[in-house]
Amino acid sequence: MSLWEYANPQKFMQLSRRVLPFVAAASVLCLLGGLAWGFFGTPDDYKQGSTVKIIYLHVPAAMMAINAWVMMLAASLVWLIRRHHVSALAAKAAAPVGLTFTLIALATGALWGQPMWGTWWAWDPRLTSFLILALFYLGYMALWQAVDDPDTAADLTGVLCIVGSVFALLSRYAVNFWNQGLHQGASLSLDKEENVADVFWFPLLVCIAGFVLLFLTLVLLRTRTEIRSRRLNALLARERMG
Predict the structure, then answer these.
(1) 227, 214, 213: which is closest to 93 by C-alpha?
(2) pLDDT in tens, 4-38
(3) Where are the domains of the chain?
């Protein structure tokens, strides 16, 4: 069985209808379990106090803000190369979800930064690139709305997605590119010395899994809605022509 079979809208709808309940249930379990474990089952940090617990919202949201754009890039490339409509609609469906994660990351970052840095905002490389990424999300969504022809809109937003990927990359690796800046290094790393302590690390992994599953749930739901909307518009257009 080829993965490309699910580029067919009918097969995608059949598969997504079967897997959605399980993905949604798993996301709820991971989110509730991870956040409860993190906020109520872990101690305060010796330096940051209870403020450190923002990590259970901030880190997963920041990771998914970037990964959502990467998913949109992959789906856009599939559309531009193979012209599969489901991939274009999946990219469109992911944009509001990715923007929401970006805004959560910016808001929780401000809440975390104020007691740690003494300011709500700093023109730190990673913070600035995240703000630009949020603007790219808004521009991407606005471009979809501004162009009437859906295929042309998919083409233009696909190109915008490629350009915006530069800032998704900067958001992820800004701390490595520039030594200056207030933002800390990675909370999760292959280098054990950079990782948070295990008491914070394990519930954080559960929260990240919850955010990934939540993203998948929302994108599947929104893609199904986009497919139905396109079908409805095609039927209405056919009736007007008839």
Answers:
(1) 227
(2) 776 788 999 999 999 999 999 999 999 999 999 99
(3) 20-180+197-241
